[in-house]
Write a structure and sequence with these properties.
By secondary structure, the chain is of the alpha+beta class. The protein has 5 helices and 10 strands; from the N terminus they run ββββββαααβαβαββ. The protein folds into 2 domains: 82 residues, Immunoglobulin-like (Sandwich), CATH 2.60.40; 128 residues, no CATH class. It is globular, with a radius of gyration of 20 Å.
């Protein structure tokens, strides 16, 4: 078990007093077999009325409602997490050619929402789709996904991008570069276009090169 302490601070400063609209905050990770929340805290200045709820994806969402103008908004989230099974699971060691079966009930109805792609595969390089489509037809999805990740890494350069939003897949391909969220969205759309369910996920990336361990926000695909 690894104990992780996360401090996530966001500060907005305005040149004149503004009235804040309700803010929707997703700062609390989902508990699971591999991650448990030992302690959490949320400090917001100015102090809002805070309402907690769960969204359709079972995420814990805090709704902050403000009643006074302010020159600055400061949001500090603190988490103490217990992380288990940090080495991950290598399916290729369990089965010679694992199959990702997404056609079983009742999962099929839920996963259908994650199989719709807004990207025409004809707009993509064949190197990103040909092998995946062939492998999926032969029930070799896991090995194909590994190869697809390597192919995207080979043709798209990672680049830190501070501007908000996510590039379209065609923009990422034309530029030949993108941030983690751009590369993740490209992978989501390609995989969905080949008939496999995929979703965009955001969270934290830890680096063990520094003490105390440094971290950053990150995006990936499930």
């Amino acid at each position: 078990m690894q104990l992780i302490h996360v401090v996530h601070q966001t500060t907005y400063t305005f040149d004149q007093a503004v009235t804040l609209r309700p803010h929707r905050l997703l700062l609390r990770p989902r508990d699971g077999f591999d991650l448990r929340i030992r302690q959490s805290g949320l400090s917001i200045t100015p102090t809002p009325a805070l309402y907690w709820q769960r969204d359709a994806f079972n995420n814990s969402v805090a709704i902050a409602v403000f009643d006074q103008p302010t020159l600055q908004l400061d949001i500090v989230s603190t988490l103490t997490l217990e992380q288990y099974q940090t080495d991950g699971l290598n399916l290729s060691q369990l089965l010679p050619n694992p199959v990702l079966d997404h056609d079983l009930e009742p999962e099929a109805a839920v996963l259908q929402a994650y199989q719709t792609s807004r990207l025409a595969l004809s707009d993509l390089p064949q190197s990103l789709t040909e092998g995946l489509s062939r492998a999926c037809a032969a029930h070799e999805q896991f090995l194909a996904l590994q190869a697809l990740c390597a192919d995207i890494k080979a043709v798209i350069a990672y680049q830190i991008r501070e501007t908000p939003g996510v590039q379209t897949c065609l923009e990422t391909l034309a530029l030949g570069s993108g941030s983690c969220r751009d590369l993740a969205w490209l992978l989501v759309e390609v995989v969905r276009g080949c008939g496999l369910p995929a979703r965009f996920v955001s969270g934290y990336l830890l680096s063990h090169q520094f003490e105390p361990i440094d971290g950053a926000t990150h995006a990936w695909v499930e």
